[in-house]
Amino acid sequence: MYELVLDEFKGYCLSNEREVQKSSRSQDSALSDGIFELPWDAYLDYDSDKDCADPHYSSAEDGALNDGKKKKMNKREKREYRLQRKIRASMNKKARRQQESSGASSESRTIDDNPFALQQKISNVHKKILDHADVGKEKEVKLFQYYSISAYKSDLSYIMPDEWISDNNISLIFEMINQVFLKNPEIKFGKQIMLLCPSIVQLFLHFPIDDKFESILPTKELEESKLVFMPVNYMDSTDIYELEQVNTGDHWVLCLLNLMDNCLYVYNSMREDDDDEDQKTLVELVNRLQKCKSIVGGKQKIRIIHMNCDQQTNSNDCGVFLLMITCILAKRLLFEERIILDISNIKFSALAGRLRIMELMYRISSMAKDD
Question: What structural domains and CATH numbers belong to the chain?
Answer without folding.
Answer: 2-69+76-90+113-370 (3.40.395.10)
